[in-house]
Design goal:
Length: 149
């Protein structure tokens, strides 16, 4: 039995930085649910409507951010494994697609929720979630290009 490389875990500084931004984005996404979301002109033109005031299925729209954050936390231990470039791309693609599917289940258009919640309701958690997720994606794309295997 000759095993070439039995080390299946790889921890380097770059992966730790990627994981920090994934954890930050996931934590902020989990906090968005509690921070409160709002939409301008949902029922009437020029009226700001907070999600806790809405009755019906639209009230569940805040929970999709928590589900997307939970997916980030579930996928984060997989980044510690030593993965080849194709497997790393599959992992990143699967995480992004599952988070996209979670976020696409909202009744109110997502761009209105994000824009109005940041602009009118000063939802800093949502803004931090978007920034950390963007940095996470950029760092992953850079890692794919510089990884040796």
């Amino acid at each position: 039995m000759n095993f070439k490389n039995t080390n299946i875990f790889e921890i380097n500084t770059y992966k730790i930085i990627i994981l920090v931004f994934l954890y930050l984005a996931s934590y902020c996404a989990l906090q968005v649910e509690d921070a409160g979301l709002c939409v301008m002109s949902f029922y009437e033109e020029g009226i700001l409507t907070h999600f806790h005031e809405i009755q019906g299925s639209e009230i569940d729209d805040a929970a999709v951010f928590g589900a997307a954050g939970l997916l980030g936390l579930i996928f984060s231990p997989l980044y510690f494994f030593r993965l080849s470039r194709p497997w790393f791309i599959r992992l990143l693609t699967t995480l992004c697609l599952l988070q996209f599917f979670c976020l696409s289940m909202v009744v109110i258009p997502l761009n209105l929720i994000i824009h109005d919640s940041i602009k009118y309701c000063d939802n800093v958690w949502l803004l931090e979630c978007l920034i950390c997720q963007l940095i996470f994606m950029i760092l992953n794309l850079i890692y794919i290009n510089i990884s040796a295997y």
